[in-house]
Specification:
Radius of gyration: 44 Å
Largest sheet: 6 strands, mixed
Oligomer: single chain
Structural class: alpha/beta
Shape: rod-shaped
Strand content: 15-25%
Helix content: 40-55%
Number of strands: 20
Strand order of the largest sheet: 6-7-8-3-9-10
């Protein structure tokens, strides 16, 4: 509420404003004292460098005096913090600039609404209010146009509407006709006169004597001092006025106001991104590449581990194999005959053993009709195929009767089938092949198995171990004993138990144990290490993308300093500016993150189609983590540029083109 006549709405006592200029100090205002009553229309004139613009900035709380006291409606401005000054500008002042200072990315009506957004006015109410003001000022039909589509006079009318939307008590006009032709200037002055008649306090800074003559009071400055303060001819002394009816209450501090400002910040961020599409895309690119790389590497790493474990499973999961010899590479291992069938039978009686098969082997030639090749003859028990996880492709496997009766039943591998029976629809089932001088009948074909380390192109034939001992090697010693451990038992504990049992049986440790779980862990660890290495590289690219976001946001802040100044002038809090730029950085990173995730998923789909045996899957957790990571990058790397924007000095920001 405007105070009575005895209380000036603006009161300056001994105001001094100094600026550092190299090693010297420039005094812009020199112990200036001034009082302005409510409802006055005052013109401040003076030559360039007289201090009139500095005075206007201090009056509008855009700048602070070096010393002296400044009160607005009894409030001591020097005691207010940045947000309280913003509230004062938002509640009491309306700014009209020589260069209009409209935001180019917004329409006319959206420019008018900006102060109301920061005041917490509801969207429908502020739109109605803004449209009404534009209609009153004769530019209602141009409300949807951007500033570059308006004439100078129309832009200034939009600027006046923006100054009025919060029911400003004091209108501060800085050379309001300086950029206009005479006709448009006259129209603007007429509007200012109408506002004055409504009871508003009008303060005009101008160098034009004709413009100053329209005011009731003219204050002339020279070298930072008031050299003249006079009333114009025929102007009456100010009379007490009623309070200006304010249409906007400052509800911006509540959660509804904060939510409204967040919506506005998000909308403005999208507008800024749309206005600078290429820059926004290039900013996102680093995030897109980083998130796509990290997501793909994690998914590919998991798929690789599953593939490795699947391949190891084809060799026989949870298996350990006992060989003669004190260690791998023992030159005397071939002469050790202590690993025998009774050892296999003793191990088979242990509760933690799910399957046991003795193995013997020899090399010979295989002949079928006119074809001949080298072959590895494997003597195994009937449970060998179950222990090794081998899958039957055709025919059948030999059974315990074949082992017990030393029958010449052969199971061939896929390589042998391709070599001798590629064109045979029976795949060799029922055919007789010669292994050395021993004829054997083929009863089954097993599917191709992984060969462990690298692909195995050797031909293999499987016979009952009793047959191999009797027909090929001529002794009862075993090449190895292959054991499958129960799934609920640790292979390391099982290895210790097997070691203890065989050591007791042999009275010495003349055997060595191969634990396939060690191989599985080693390969899994290796794949994890490689995945971590590639993921680290991807994370580095993600960090680089984040730095790119920060750099672009710093550039954006530099390019939009004038916009920041305008927003502060019409009442934006520091938190509003911080929020706007932080939301923009977060949106850029989030959209980049979503794009990166989509690219990673599409890449996974392409890999799954191209390589059906290698299935890449993405969990909701990994997708969520990737999105949160990209959003976090926006917050982390966008905070410094946003904070820099928020802590700009309004008067410095407004002085930048």
């Amino acid at each position: 509420m405007i105070p009575h006549l005895a209380d000036p709405i603006i009161d300056l006592q001994n105001i001094r404003r100094e600026f550092a200029a190299g090693d010297t100090t420039v005094v812009a205002l020199d112990d200036l004292s001034l009082s302005i009553q409510p409802g006055e229309m005052v013109a401040i004139i003076g030559s360039s460098g007289s201090g009139k613009s500095t005075l206007l900035n201090i009056l509008g709380c855009l700048d602070r005096p070096t010393s002296g006291a400044y009160r607005v409606a009894r409030k001591n401005v020097s005691e207010l913090d940045a947000d309280e000054l913003a509230a004062l500008r938002r509640e009491h002042f309306g700014f009209i600039f020589q260069r209009y200072n409209l935001l180019g990315d917004l329409s006319a009506v959206e420019n008018v609404e900006i102060p109301a957004v920061y005041a917490g006015m509801k969207a429908r109410e502020r739109r109605t209010r803004a449209t009404g003001l534009l209609e009153r000022l004769g530019v209602a039909t141009r409300g949807g146009h951007r500033p570059n589509q308006l004439s100078g006079g129309q832009q200034q009318r939009v600027s006046i509407a923006r100054a009025l939307i919060n029911g400003a008590e004091v209108i501060l006009a800085d050379e309001p006709t300086g950029a206009l032709d005479r006709r448009s200037g006259e129209e603007v002055l007429k509007i200012l006169k109408e506002l004055h008649r409504e009871g508003r306090t009008i303060i005009i800074v101008t160098h034009d004597a004709d413009v100053a003559a329209r005011a009731e009071r003219i204050i002339e400055l020279r070298d930072g001092k008031i050299v003249s303060d006079r009333r114009t001819e025929g102007a009456a002394a100010p009379e007490p006025t009623e309070a200006i009816a304010r249409t906007a209450c400052d509800s911006g501090a509540g959660w509804t106001g904060a939510l409204g400002r967040l919506r506005e910040a998000s909308r403005m961020a999208l507008v800024a991104m749309a206005a600078h599409r290429l820059r926004a895309f290039l900013t996102m690119l680093g995030i897109i590449i980083g998130i796509a790389a990290v997501s793909s590497v994690v998914a590919l790493g998991n798929a690789s581990q599953r593939k490795v474990l699947s391949d190891i499973s084809s060799l026989g999961t949870n298996t350990i194999e006992v060989f003669p010899g004190k260690d791998f590479g023992d030159a005397r291992a071939g002469k050790i005959r202590t690993l025998v069938l009774d050892d296999a039978r003793a191990l088979d009686r242990q509760s933690f053993i799910a399957g046991v098969t003795p193995t013997v082997s020899t090399s010979t030639t295989v002949r079928y009709r006119g074809n001949e090749s080298n072959v590895l003859v494997n003597g195994v028990g009937e449970s060998y195929f179950q222990v090794k996880g081998a899958k039957l492709a055709k025919g059948r496997l030999f059974d315990s009767d074949a082992v017990r009766n030393i029958e010449r039943q052969a199971v061939i591998d896929d390589n042998t089938r391709k070599t001798f029976f590629a064109d045979d629809q029976t795949s060799g089932i029922g055919r007789v092949i010669w292994l050395g001088k021993v004829p054997c009948r083929i009863v089954g074909v097993i599917a191709q198995q992984q060969g462990g380390f690298g692909s195995n192109q050797n031909l293999s034939v499987y016979l009952p171990y009793t047959t191999v001992q009797a027909q090929f090697t001529g002794n009862r010693a075993l090449r190895s004993v292959l054991l499958r451990i129960s799934d609920e038992i640790s292979t390391n504990l099982a290895q210790d138990a097997v070691t203890t049992l065989l050591t007791q049986r042999h009275n010495t440790r003349d055997f060595v144990i191969l634990n396939t779980d060690d191989i599985r862990r080693t390969i899994t660890s290796t794949t994890q290490t490689l995945a971590f290495l590639v993921a680290a590289i991807a994370v580095i690219s993600l960090v680089v993308g984040g730095i790119g976001v920060m750099n672009i946001m710093l550039v954006s802040v530099s390019e939009r300093i004038s916009e920041i100044g305008v927003r502060m002038a019409v009442g934006a809090r520091r938190s509003d500016i911080l929020q706007q730029f932080l939301v923009e950085a977060t949106l850029i990173s989030s959209i980049g993150g979503i794009a990166g995730i989509l690219i990673a998923v599409l890449l996974g789909v392409a890999i799954n189609i191209a390589a059906p045996g290698f299935q890449v899957t993405y969990s909701m957790f990994s997708i969520g983590a990737a999105f949160l990571t990209s959003t976090g990058i926006g917050v982390a790397f966008g905070f410094f540029p946003a904070r820099r924007a928020a802590f700009l000095d309004p008067v410095v920001a407004l002085s930048r083109d």
